[in-house]
Every structure is written in structure tokens, then in C-alpha cells.
């Protein structure tokens, strides 16, 4: 009986290790997809199978060290009895990848919009590269002038990392548009939990009451800034009022 050579044993073990690693990778991908599909059902959104790879890639690169926070200049912090009421900030001119959504519910719009942006971030772009996570992901929402009702149309937007600002990769998805936003002063207030029509209107009305001069801001356009993905249970969000140009 011929003895197995050291080389063939090495290759055999190497192959089995690679196969085991591949199997574990596939299992992790399935687990993450299943989790997102479960969350999606809660928002009445179907998460398709082709999202498995972007979800896995984004999850791997979603440690705090990997995320780039959108730069801003802090102008003022308004506090009361030690509690932060709001911050006044200036954000510089920058390019964003934007997608307009008009689903029946706000949560459906942000979930579906975020999935499209995830594909763009995860190599489905002209560079073929993973672009990197920036936070927050923002959603532009509109209300009537009385700020009593939210309109259906929203825009979900991803701030392009500093190294890509001059030459943003082109999205393969024609629904995603690269826009340059002007320098803007915002009034920002933090809140936690889910974001839906009711919670957003509540936060808009709350910040309007706190601000000394809310009339200096746009009365029908606001931004929801999300620091955690839509699948997270206890999300960290901000409501932004935009100072009139």
C-alpha cells in the first residue's frame, strides 16, 4: 500500500480547511440574510437573496473604527439643567449619493433606499471597490407648511468619504444620483428608537418648541440622521432643522 506523501497530506488538509472556512462563511451569510429578512418583514419590506453579500460585507466593516463621521463645525450647544437640548452645526459643501423613495410607509422607504445604497457602497459602482461606511445616513423628509403631516416622498442619502469627494464612483443603479449639497447650518437634536411618521412629527414639533427662532429654518423640509442601521432595535437618530440660506 503506497504511503501518502507529505505534500499530498498538506494539500488535502489545506483543501479541507478552505472548504470548512467557505462553509462557515456561507452559514454566516445565511444567518445575516435571515436576520435582515426577519427585520424587513417587520417593516413590510422583502429583502431579496442578492442582498446577502452586501449585508455580510457591510456587517464586517461596521466596527466603530471603520466608520467615518461626516465632518462639521460646532457653532453652539444649548443646554438646560445639564441636558443637551440641541446643537447648532455647520456642514460644508459635499457630494452625496441620493435616492428618492415613495413607499406607503416611511420605514419601507428608508429600508428599501438603504438597501440600494448598500449595493452601491459594496462594489456595485464604477470603481468595483467597497467604498466605506459614513455616518449618519440621512433621510430628507417633507411636511405641509403647518408641520402637521408628513409627505410620502423622501430622499435617502449617503455622504461620500473624503477620498471620493472629488471623483465619486458612478452607481450601477440609475435610481441613485450623485448630488452636491451646499454648505448648510443645521439645528440638531438627538432621539432614540424607531423612526416612523408619528415619531418624526413628534420630534419636529418638540425641536420647534425648543428653538428660540424656528422661523429662521425651512418650515417644510427636515432631515432624519441615522447613526445605526435600520435593522437595529434601539437606533440612535437626530432630527435636523435646516437654516434658510
From TrEMBL:
Superkingdom of this protein's organism: Eukaryota
Acidic residues biased stretches: 17-29
GO molecular function term, any single one: heme binding
SUPFAM superfamilies: Probable bacterial effector-binding domain
Region annotated Disordered, chain positions: 1-30
Protein family membership: Belongs to the HEBP family.
Entry protein name: HEBP2 protein
Originating organism: Syrrhaptes paradoxus (Pallas's sandgrouse)
